[in-house]
Design a protein that fits this description.
- The complex is a heterodimer.
- Chain A has strands at residues 5-7, 10-13, 19-24, 31-38, 42-50, 53-57, 64-68, 74-78, 87-94, 103-104, 108-112.
- Chain A is mainly beta.
- In chain A, the strands form two sheets. In chain A, strands 2, 4, 5, 6, 9, 10 and 11 form a seven-stranded mixed beta sheet that branches.
- The N and C termini of chain A lie far apart (37 Å).
- Chain B has no helices and twelve strands.
- In chain B, the strands form three sheets. In chain B, strands 2, 5, 6, 10, 11 and 12 form a six-stranded mixed beta sheet that branches. Chain B has a four-stranded antiparallel beta sheet with strand order 3-9-8-7, with no helix packed on it. In chain B, strands 1-4 form a two-stranded antiparallel sheet.
- The radius of gyration of chain B is 14 Å and the shape is globular.
- Classes of the chains: A mainly beta, B mainly beta.
- The interface between A and B is medium-sized, with 25 and 22 residues.
Chain lengths: 113, 114
């Protein structure tokens, strides 16, 4: 089975722009979670989707949003980018949203200039 | 608020030394516990997990962890490390009621010298 894939792998944007990141979960997995990883804050939870519904949201501003499609693929969007949004954005998938292991993708490294 | 503490930020060992990385969490209810590893240039991989049952769990590559409920701890151990174990190790906790949300510790960078 193919693992979690994320596109693009690297991205450079400037302040004020917006960006959309994509995540394809492992086949059959219906839950997708997003995390932000930075040297200063570590791994922080952004949100989680299950069956196209957002089930959980972390403490991030409204500039961060996401969605999930009927095929379980997910996108996250960051509007009005700030320098502090530079990070590795990780997507994780699991079979359901309950007692399951999350499997992580390679991440999208975003640099905001 | 849920917090996960990893006591060591950076651990340096020689090959064949024993390893123990500490992890404590602050939530008192039912938890699922995980250790993930991130090798240089690679993505997060699951090392081992605890959901229920035997509190001593074995993972890949000779790693094991012990869940001590009374101490809110889930420490990672390996009797003899190898150079290839050089990586960053993350402890993560999922509360029984919060579906897919994982709370991560800040990570421990392990460097093993040959």
């Amino acid at each position: 089975k193919a693992g979690v894939t994320q596109t693009p792998r690297y991205l450079i944007k400037t302040r004020g722009q917006q960006v959309t990141l994509s995540c394809s979960p492992i086949s059959g997995h219906r839950s997708v979670s997003w995390y932000q990883q930075t040297p200063g804050q570590g791994l922080q939870f952004l949100f989680e989707y299950f069956s196209e519904t957002q089930r959980n949201k972390g403490n991030f501003p409204g500039r961060f949003s996401g969605r999930q499609f009927s095929n379980s693929r997910s996108e996250m969007n960051v509007s009005t980018l700030e320098l502090g949004d530079s990070a590795l954005y990780l997507c994780a998938s699991s079979l359901t949203a309950s007692q399951e292991t999350q499997y992580f993708g390679p991440g999208t490294r975003l640099l905001v200039l | 608020a849920q917090s996960v503490s990893q006591h060591n930020h950076h651990v340096i060992l020689s090959e064949a030394a024993s390893l123990e990385l500490g992890c404590n969490y602050s939530y008192g209810g039912t938890v699922n516990l995980f250790w993930y590893v991130q090798y240089p240039g690679q993505h997060l991989q699951l090392l081992l997990k605890y959901f229920s049952g035997d509190p001593l769990v074995k993972g890949i590559k000779g790693f094991e962890a012990e869940f001590i409920k009374s101490k809110f701890s889930f420490n990672l151990r390996k009797p003899s490390v190898q150079w290839s174990d050089t990586a960053e190790y993350f402890c993560a906790v999922k509360r029984g009621s919060t579906l897919g949300r994982l709370y991560f510790g800040r990570g421990t960078q392990l460097t093993v010298w040959p």
